[in-house]
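ok so heres the complex, two chains, lmk if somethin looks off
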Amino acid sequence: AQSVTQLGSHVSVSEGALVLLRCNYSSSVPPYLFWYVQYPNQGLQLLLKYTSAATLVKGINGFEAEFKKSETSFHLTKPSAHMSDAAEYFCAVSDPNSGGSNYKLTFGKGTLLTVNP
Amino acid sequence: NAGVTQTPKFQVLKTGQSMTLQCAQDMNHEYMSWYRQDPGMGLRLIHYSVGAGITDQGEVPNGYNVSRSTTEDFPLRLLSAAPSQTSVYFCASQGPNQPQHFGDGTRLSIL
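and the predicted structre for the whole thing:
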């Protein structure tokens, strides 16, 4: 069974500071990994995904994440936080062997990012 | 292109009432799913479907029914609502080797 652990339910940074949101996964097979963002009263939007190609993945809005198999991690970073980055972020894992498509996602519990002026 | 459309956006029910949450997608995606989101719990999979006529249970299926008669629609039914089903419900659809597309959610309160 797969699982995702997001360390820190709430992260607070100053505008312009580095953003680091942590995600560790447990999977019996090399997984697909995703980061989603949720703005208040909205659905989830995909930030980026890892599907066994390059281990450093670049996403939208200046975010990137690095897949580290030895650490079973997929941490999300952004060099300089903007006020507009304030949202909740979810890490998710799927089994690439699940029916030929990566459709069954297991989500972490989320990290709320606050950006202070 | 509307994407994934969920209706209603808000609903208040009394314990024991039934209702159907609607989900429709216009991307011809085979895969659709329902999640519930509760504070501090992330999103948990309720039911999913890999195509018309095919559904299966996710992590938290009890109290919910689904059917998939067309590719476009995937309704979620609460037969006898309970306060524990107060939550925000999200529908998602996905094409082959694509990320999941989410609707804007239905906020359901059960008194």
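quick notes: Chain A has no helices and eleven strands. thats all i got rn
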